[in-house]
Structures
1.
Amino acid sequence: MSDLREKLFYEKKNGYDRIDTKERLAIEAYCRDYMAWLNVSRTEREAVANAIVQAEEAGFVPYVPGMPLKAGDRVYKSNRGKSLMLAVIGKKSLSEGSVIAGAHVDSPRLDLKQVTMYESDELCFFKTHYYGGLKKYQWVTIPLELHGVVALKSGETVDIVIGREPGEPRFVITDLLPHLAQDQMKKTMAEGITGEGLNILIGSAPYADEGKDRVKLAVMSILHDMYDITEEDFLSAELVAAPAYDVCEIGLDRSMIGGYGHDDRVCAYAELRAIFDVQEPERTCVCLLVDKEEIGSEGVTGMQSAAFECFMSDLCESQGVALRHCFENSFCLSADVTNAFDPNYPEVSEKRSESMLNYGVGVCKFTGARGKYTTSDASAEVVAYIRRLFEREGVLWQMAELGKVDQGGGGTIARFMSKRNIDTIDAGVPVLSMHAPFEVVGKLDCYMIYKGVLAAYLDK
Ligand code: MN
Ligand code: MN
């Protein structure tokens, strides 16, 4: 390339051409830890519970309203066990703003209905109501495991995990054999498998008596033996079926990671690791692991909930600072995954703008759909700040856009942060097969979002 071209043109470079051996080793070590964490963090509740254990090891203590706080103090607040806020108090006053990184820990999945169990033709099933945007045909004929809680009338809560450990039974949704599928195969992919057709097979052996629903009785009696619950207890349960795939390396070069729930636990884990590395920051650092992003950030544990204001105003009040002044001067990295360009489906992408695997953090100035509808659209100044920060700190990154104009679209928590008068930009890991039961990410990109969040936390 001529000097003039090099000087004037913008050209993306593969991340592997821009790292040294030392960084390559750091990527491997980081990703080993991430894979182990993702393997045991299959729901928002499990991600939050695991994060709390690690946070306490890293010196974080539960925040108690009114507790005195000084620079370097590390506190966390669990919002009903389904979302988590952590903070490391900065040397500067909160009137100068905080540095926030926000990721979500919920992922698309199949929720069990409240009246879920039934027997049909001597087979027993759970009925489901899917959660988040998923392609239903991807969820049949794959092994499923069960996670969640049953809240009892007594006030006690029973934790349930079946199928995660080797040797435990798993579950499945059946599909038609091709021999008899000629009518099904004429349907569109959206219609071939229906929402009410996502019924999970959970048993087939009848109870040894003469009554009705003998298979269901046998299954229910097993659950009663294991957890001391009855069918009525499902009314107040939150149980989800998640893919029973282990997280693993992908490719002969082992450069990628396959697994369920990279969206968005890959960024959640990065934020955790980054805030654990922060000691006495200039500005207060806040790490958010939120729930309900996949269904619009609604609900008391989603980013639209006032739980965030409650936590932040507590921190502000301890310094005599008005929350609105803190928000106005804060910066938020909305760390959420983005679409990676897939050469198998180039028709949905505009290659110049799409993020590529192994090119580093994908920075989305805007998301949305149909002419940038429902996006916060970060200002040019905020993008310039990211350019400055990431270049200075050696964070490999690229611009990202979710597909061709009018091809579809999406959203993140960014718009709910910007509504609070906080400068916000999306930045995250490019994903192949996003929202599938088995998603793929590049190891290099996983590490770079960690580096990116840490750079923001440590910026003066
Ligand atoms: Mn996401
Ligand atoms: Mn998503």
2.
Amino acid sequence: MNAASDSSAPSLRQLPPLREIIARHGLNASKALGQNFLLDEQLLDRIARVPGPLAGQRAYEVGPGPGGLTRALLRAGAEVVAVERDRRCLPALAELREASEGRLRLIEGDALAVDEAAEAGRGAHIVANLPYNVGTALFVRWLGGEAWPPWWASLTLMFQLEVAERIVARPATPAYGRLAVLAQWRSEARIAMKVHRSAFVPPPKVMSAVVHIVPKAAPEGVRAATLERLTAAAFGQRRKMMRQSLKGLPGALDALATLGIDAQRRAETLGVEEFVAVARAMDA
Ligand code: SAM
């Protein structure tokens, strides 16, 4: 369907405010489901712009809740597939689907159990204010695996600021670790915007940030599984020298020697490219 970007079918514009939707459907935020809702439509429109123009593009949203971000994605002209675990949200989302002129498909269930590539289709942009309890698991799944490029075109994800900083961290900083290597070895990762805790209902204890990730060409000859084992061992004991932390990982110390990397260094001093080179040498 070719929706124009200003789209908006009058019916989308005529929807009642999110606060009213939440009150009418009794959507009290559940801590167990990681619910912190965003209600500021301008902020939501800014988040929906992070992936770039979405008119006529597909978007996959995890956890639409009362549908604030979903509305913004629809206003931007996207065709949206959204998966929500909380059944209480479904009547509110069904109203939004009515207003969407066929551009919203809802899946009820656990995002961890969804066959995403099949449901959202290759080339979809993933956009989500993630539930904190499953956010990291989904992130690791989206960035892991041997197949590259992945099924998704980009990730636009809300995280706690501290997690976002770990994703974009540079070497030799306290935040640098497994998440940074995972996010950066075959993707570009950046913080697109910081979001104050007061923007959420209820406000979480910490600040948040939207991370934007776009896949790039994967380095040749490197298996994701080897890199994952390497970073797990190296950062499992990040204060130790690698000759200690990597000694139980077959081939790792030999790979350091072959590459002329000093085994007395600590993992946090190794750049992403160096980790890639070590993983490649381990499999050679
Ligand atoms: N997108 C909404 C917003 O921005 O206001 C809600 C975001 S809230 C942080 C997270 C949402 O994810 C909640 O609606 C929650 O019910 C949903 N959720 C939690 N665990 C989930 C899971 N395993 N699969 C799908 N949705 C889940």
